[in-house]
Design goal:
By secondary structure, the chain is of the alpha+beta class. It is 39% helix and 28% strand. α1 packs antiparallel against α2. It is elongated. InterPro entries: MmpS_C.
Length: 236
């Protein structure tokens, strides 16, 4: 009896390990670009979304088989840092811009008062507590940054609040001794979401004095109402 032995299988060549990770390199590039853009005003609103793309690319680079993961890890770290920096600086820049606008309005008011002094208006009989003015922000965006003002004969004060759900409402009182040269009332808003519409509205007793609407990425609106318009709405 003759026995035949099956030939031994040939050894399998080991899986070749790639020496580069293109997706990880792309994540590093996108993360660095978004990190640089995060510190530039206005551009940092867009760089946050670019940083999210870098995070996604880095995760893909980490799960690829037989690829070095060093570049993907670096890309993930840089992109996450860019996301955080974009959000923080977007809030800082927005508050700063609102403060600059408020300072410019107050400076213009002071210049007008110096150049053209006028006698204070005489309050109407029976009107001792001023006029109640309502502020409102509404729209399809889920939240917004709100900045609003209150005025007296001596100063204009500004308040700001971030991540406010809509509709957002506030109220203030226009004193009877305030004149048109003392300035008016201001309401501004900037949407936190990437898209949608945002409306600002200043009203007195349900009568709309000023209304503005904007739409699109990071929509922003500013409503201005002077003293005469507010008193006319209250009288009507």
């Amino acid at each position: 009896m003759t026995f035949r032995y099956a030939p031994e299988p040939e050894p399998t060549a080991p899986r070749e390990r790639k020496t580069s990770n293109g997706v990880g390199v792309a994540a590093v590039v996108v993360g660095v670009v978004s990190l640089v853009g995060a510190v530039i005003p206005i551009l940092n609103y867009v760089s946050g979304f670019l940083a999210v793309v870098g995070v996604v690319l880095a995760i893909i680079g980490l799960v690829l088989r037989d690829r070095p993961r060093g570049s993907a890890v670096v890309g993930l770290i840089v992109s996450v840092a860019a996301v955080i920096l974009s959000i923080v600086l977007a809030i800082v820049y927005t508050v700063g811009i609102a403060s600059l606008i408020g300072g410019a309005v107050e400076e213009a008011r002071e210049q007008a008062r110096t150049a053209e002094p006028v006698d204070p208006a005489t309050p109407e009989p029976g009107a001792t507590e001023g006029i109640t003015v309502d502020y409102e922000l509404s729209g399809s965006v889920p939240s917004a940054i709100a900045t609003w003002s209150s005025v007296t004969t001596d100063d204009i004060d500004y308040e700001s609040a971030t991540a406010q759900g809509l509709p957002f409402t506030r109220g203030t009182v226009l004193p009877d001794d305030v004149t048109p040269q003392d300035g008016g009332l201001t309401l501004s808003g900037m949407a936190d979401a990437a898209g949608g519409d945002l409306t600002c509205r200043i009203s007195v007793g349900g009568v709309i004095v000023e209304e503005r609407t904007a739409s699109g990425p990071q929509a922003s609106v500013v409503c201005l109402a002077d003293v005469d318009e507010i008193r006319a709405a209250a009288a009507g």
